[in-house]
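[Target chain]
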Amino acid sequence: MRRRTRVAVIGGGQNCEHEVSLASAAAAAAALDPARYHVMALTIGVEGDWRDERDRPIGLAAAVELLHDCDVALPLVHGPRGEDGTLAALLDLAGLPYAGSGLTAGAVAMDKWVTKLVAQAIGIATAPGVLLTGATAATYTWTHPVVVKPVAAGSSRGVRRVDRPGELADALDAALALDRRVLVEDVIEGREVDLAVLARADGTRIVAPALEIVVAGGLFDYDTKYDGSAVFRVPAPLAEADRKALEHAALATYDALGCRGVARVDFFVTADGPVLNEVNTTPGFTGRSQVPRMFDAAGIPYPELLDILIEDALAGAS
């Protein structure tokens, strides 16, 4: 009888995306074929503690010992101390292959300011913006509508559109409560369209059909991301020229950041072409999240998507 692959599915996290990460990890663990995989669920608590699959508290050393018993890890911790390369670094030190991007790509993509610099260096347009800190935020003067966001938070936490000068201070305070650095960007008028890039074990990449986000209020913030009010159109209705431009920009960004596994690359589609918004190296991963929806539209159902991620991780370790 063929030995099942032992997969550590890691969820939770010590950040504001803890609950979202728990949902992603639970969905993945449930979707992995029990005939092929033996799943070991590990959870990182909001205080940084680790728990085993029976929800018993364990120390980091014990967690690493459990990881040593696995063949591969599926880390699904979104946001800081997870997606930002922290968890990838731990798995590298533990010597365990894992699905998804490594330390450098995770850290760079999580930093929206650095991502902008990389994109600009390879000719991908981004929204004009400035970087502020707690020490410099008071020097910024509102002159036109902007979007204020933490540099390194996820799930659109702390993101606000500011249409009047009186709204600026509260928006900056909300963003600075989540990050020491804040990005203030011009509002880009265009359609919000996401693409997902997936690496296969043979080195080829798949770009899933684009997904358009339609939001009544115009801003895809944390509430609209999870309250069901946003409409996802996949495949997005796009002119052929726009589709090709988006796919080229998504692949170029994925490669420039050094991503592995799957990454979601978010754009605004404007009259002048694609404008990069952000890159997620550990995107939401429930069956109804954007990336699984996109690959389902490509004929790759959720369980098969997980298979591809695990096969790519194991191939990279061989």
About this structure: Residues 5-98 form a domain with the Rossmann fold fold (CATH 3.40.50.20). The chain has three domains: 5-98, 107-125+189-317, 129-186.
